[in-house]
């Protein structure tokens, strides 16, 4: 399937506008946006996937209730406070929805709230009462609107994360756009921290939810920075249908094409998140091929990018392939490692380091050059089947400890 990258992020699809403002939640950072608003021109089919953490943010509880009918028209997001474990959390999230509804002239039940930041801190409505009307007045259906929203949801991210692609469905040009945030507290099993997708494709709510839940296991659940699953992980998609394609109401060729497009944009966003991991100097992608089954392929690739020992080795530009093999070996499952082969590659070249679970002669000097690049690919050929999978992670650096040692200050 052919895709075309386009500008505009979440405002690239037809029918969406966004904004970002500073409302005072991050009181010590008056120069930083801390409130984002995303608004659709029409009531949209919508779906969400959330954290698997038993401790979850209050906005997630409200989202689930508001998405019962499969529709939404706006998303409001704050950074600086997770609204988790706060006594008034749910009531405050609901009040935020009412403020958005009033500002936009839509039902409060069609608003989906989300929060990110420090856990367990008290929250008050005052910043939202100031910021929501300001954001509503600033809404823009252009690239700047998307960028402002993407900037407003950042916490320890070093750069904004947004992306959009176009593709064909039913003879019509459709677009999917995304923004996301998350550099730490990211682990497999719904590890986005926060991500928001918009599309102008026409998809009924049931198939939109199914498509999202089909894509997440092979993308966001394959990403890790630090093995800590956030309390607020949220991935929401809204579909306006304004592209004019025949509505997808069954699992046909158009549905498969839509899933493929979602997969493409999700893979891009996962690489963005992992590559910007807290303190990271490298993006690590592990690609497993010829595994006995999909479950094993996914598990092995996750083990490699989650290995603290291998992550530290990449930081030190040390091609310590034994740590890769070790991570493969402790992966749960019934499979053989006898035919495992491993390559390390980057823009600087490729080195073959392990053949049939044993050392393959290579140049340490060449390997160090390969590992000096930002994007590192670990290719694992298991030699026992036809299944394949990818996972995304980053190296482990001194700065990760520094960032998390004073996160609240």
From TrEMBL:
Alphabetically ordered keywords of this record: Acyltransferase, Amino-acid biosynthesis, Arginine biosynthesis, Autocatalytic cleavage, Cytoplasm, Multifunctional enzyme, Transferase
Enzyme Commission (EC) number: 2.3.1.35, 2.3.1.1
First-listed, main subcellular location of the protein, grouped into a coarse class: cytoplasm
Catalytic reactions of this protein: L-glutamate + acetyl-CoA = N-acetyl-L-glutamate + CoA + H(+); N(2)-acetyl-L-ornithine + L-glutamate = N-acetyl-L-glutamate + L-ornithine
Pathway: Amino-acid biosynthesis; L-arginine biosynthesis; N(2)-acetyl-L-ornithine from L-glutamate: step 1/4; Amino-acid biosynthesis; L-arginine biosynthesis; L-ornithine and N-acetyl-L-glutamate from L-glutamate and N(2)-acetyl-L-ornithine (cyclic): step 1/1
The protein's enzyme class: transferase
Binding locations of substrate: 155, 181, 192, 278, 404, 409
Residue numbers marked as site, Cleavage: 191-192
Cell location: Cytoplasm
Site for Involved in the stabilization of negative charge on the oxyanion by the formation of the oxyanion hole, residues: 116-117
Origin: domain of life: Bacteria
Pfam families found in the cross-reference section: ArgJ
Residues annotated as the enzyme's active site: 192 (nucleophile)
One Gene Ontology term of the molecular function aspect: L-glutamate N-acetyltransferase activity, acting on acetyl-L-ornithine as donor
PANTHER family found in the cross-reference section: ARGININE BIOSYNTHESIS BIFUNCTIONAL PROTEIN ARGJ, ARGININE BIOSYNTHESIS BIFUNCTIONAL PROTEIN ARGJ, MITOCHONDRIAL
Described function: Catalyzes two activities which are involved in the cyclic version of arginine biosynthesis: the synthesis of N-acetylglutamate from glutamate and acetyl-CoA as the acetyl donor, and of ornithine by transacetylation between N(2)-acetylornithine and glutamate.
Similarity comment: Belongs to the ArgJ family.
Alphabetical list of NCBIfam families matching this protein: ArgJ, PRK05388.1
Quaternary assembly: Heterotetramer of two alpha and two beta chains.
UniProt name for this protein: Arginine biosynthesis bifunctional protein ArgJ
């Amino acid at each position: 399937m052919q895709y075309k990258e386009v500008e505009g992020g979440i405002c690239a699809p037809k029918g969406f506008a966004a904004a970002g403002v500073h409302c005072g939640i991050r009181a010590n950072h008056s120069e930083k946006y801390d409130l984002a608003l995303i608004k659709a021109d029409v009531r949209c089919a919508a779906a969400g996937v959330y954290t698997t953490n038993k401790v979850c943010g209050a906005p997630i509880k409200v989202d689930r209730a508001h998405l019962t009918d499969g529709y939404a028209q706006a998303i409001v997001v704050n950074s600086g406070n997770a609204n988790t474990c706060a006594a008034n959390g749910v009531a405050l999230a609901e009040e935020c929805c009412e403020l958005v509804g009033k500002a936009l002239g839509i039902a409060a039940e069609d608003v989906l709230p989300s929060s990110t930041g420090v856990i367990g801190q008290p929250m008050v409505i005052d910043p939202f009462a100031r910021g929501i009307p300001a954001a509503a007045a600033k809404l823009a259906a252009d690239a700047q609107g998307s960028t402002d929203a993407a900037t407003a949801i950042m916490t320890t991210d070093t750069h904004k994360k947004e992306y959009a692609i176009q593709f064909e469905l039913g003879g019509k040009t459709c677009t999917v756009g995304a923004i996301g945030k998350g550099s730490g507290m990211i682990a497999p099993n719904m590890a986005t921290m926060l991500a928001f997708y918009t599309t102008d494709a026409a998809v009924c709510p049931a198939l939109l939810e199914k498509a999202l839940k089909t894509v997440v296991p092979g993308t966001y659940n394959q990403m890790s920075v630090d093995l800590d699953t956030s309390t607020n992980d949220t991935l929401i998609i809204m579909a306006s249908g304004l592209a004019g394609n025949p509505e997808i109401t069954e699992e046909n060729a158009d549905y498969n094409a839509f899933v493929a497009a979602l997969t493409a944009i999700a893979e891009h966003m996962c690489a963005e998140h992992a590559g910007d991991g807290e303190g990271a100097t490298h993006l690590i992608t592990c690609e497993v091929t010829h595994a006995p089954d999909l479950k094993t392929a996914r598990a092995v690739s996750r083990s490699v990018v989650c290995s603290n020992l291998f992550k530290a080795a990449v930081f030190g530009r040390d091609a310590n392939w034994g740590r890769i093999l070790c991570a493969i070996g402790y992966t749960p499952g019934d499979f053989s490692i006898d035919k495992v082969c491993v390559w390390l590659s980057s823009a600087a070249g490729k080195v073959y380091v392990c053949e049939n679970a044993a050392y393959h002669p290579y140049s340490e000097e060449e390997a160090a050059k390969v590992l000096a690049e930002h994007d590192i690919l670990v290719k694992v050929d298991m030699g026992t089947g036809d299944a394949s999978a990818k996972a995304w992670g980053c190296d482990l650096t001194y700065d990760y400890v520094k960032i998390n040692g004073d996160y609240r200050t």
